[in-house]
Amino acid sequence: MKSLKILGVGALVLVVVAGAVWWGLPASEKPKWVTAKVDQGSIVQRVAANGTLNPVELVNVGTQISGTVLRLHADFNQPVKAGQLLAELDPAILQAQIRQSEANLSSARAVANNAELALKRNENLKARGFVSDGALDSLRKDVETARAQVLQIEAQLSRDKTNLGYSMVRSPIDGIVVNRGIDVGQTVAASFQTPTLFQIARDLRRMQIDTSVSEADVGAIKAGQPVRFTVDAFREQEFSAQVRMVRLNPTTQQNVVTYNVVIDVDNKDGVLLPGMTAQVSIITNRKERVLRVPSAALRFRPPDASDGAPAVTPSPPEKGRRPSGQPKIHMVGSGGSLVPKEIKIGITDGRFTEVLEGLAEGDEVVTRAVAATNNSQTSGFRFRMF
Q1: 319 pLDDT exceeds 60?
Q2: Do 243 and 228 meet the contact criterion of CB atoms below 8 Å apart?
Q3: Are 300 and 276 in contact (CB under 8 A)?
Q4: Is the pLDDT of residue 386 over 50?
């Protein structure tokens, strides 16, 4: 019985030792390469930017005179016609100025008439030798001065009547009222600058997006390029547009130079509103059925040979060609080794890159490596009970 127990314990020890030895043996594996095939397809190069939707033509309607708002004849979102009355300012002071100018004009005309009559009487006396030439010249001067005074007051009266007309604020264009900045009873002061009373958009069926594009991307943008954009109000819908111009006036903020790219938008459905934020994608280049390689293959860098990876087998240089700084991809050679190869590339959309030279359709290129498993790095044995 005792011998059986000894035999059982010995067998158990042997099993444990065998398991420990098996578990502690190095299980180094070669890294596995993930590859992708070179194919033909389309590549669309884009420039992304953010912008704001604005009316193509937005007119700020102001007033040239100061006064108190007496009546309002237009409100938000109201269509208006050119010449339509929008608001009235209190005309009481202006009407009083007109009456004063009219009284001054009557007085000036009376003075001018008296001066002319005096001149005529003295011209008759001069013919009879009773008035000197000097006195006659002084009377002629009085007549000219009186006539000038009449003209001056007539101009003042005309200006007063014009100001009275300015108290009636009218729309300069056909459009829709986007903003109203006044209320009845409010006093507007036009002494230093013209206050904005209304903002009128000519046609909201045609709008524009004002975007800011960095100087690194603006060189690829040209008038007429197609644009796709989305707005937060309709996240599932993508709208189409077109680049109108790149404005030459740069904007610099924190040493970053940007340019305003103006994009024309057809808003015939009227769903887009002024002030909406647009996420813009400007299509700067498009190529169909070109040879392309995943961009991940160009970013791939082989692991060091010291990590257990197969050595990279250098490709033999082409005859008469010096080594260059062309982009490289890697292909799997014999025995699982990597073979680097230089290629010539074209445009890229971030996911795929155009291949101009160096590869053919169907070639397999390495995009990444699967990390190798190496249990030999574990110090000591791992005991495992079976």
Answers
A1: no
A2: no
A3: no
A4: no
Confidence check: pLDDT of 252 > 80: yes
∠ at Cα 279 (250, 55), nearest 5°? 70
Residues 6+ apart with CB under 8 A from 46: 281, 282, 283, 284, 349
Helix, strand, coil percent values for the chain (each to nearest 5): 30, 40, 30
Sort 86 into a burial class: Cβ within 10 Å, 0-12 / 13-18 / 19+: buried
What are the residue ranges of helices labelled H in 300-366?
A: none
Q: For residue 219, which of 256, 257, 254, 246 has the smallest C-alpha distance? A: 246
The answer to whether 273 and 53 have CB atoms below 8 angstroms apart is yes
Alpha helices in the chain (DSSP H): 2-24, 92-127, 133-166, 215-218, 295-299
Q: Of 51-55, 263-267, 318-322, which range is least confident?
A: 318-322
CB neighbours of 336 closer than 8 A, spacing ≥ 6? 30, 33, 310
Could you count the other beta carbons within 10 Å of the beta carbon of residue 159?
13
What gap in Å lies between CA 207 and CA 53, rounded to an integer?
7
C-alpha to C-alpha distance for 356 and 358, rounded to whole angstroms: 7
What is the C-alpha to C-alpha distance for residues 143 and 118, in angstroms, rounded to an integer? 9
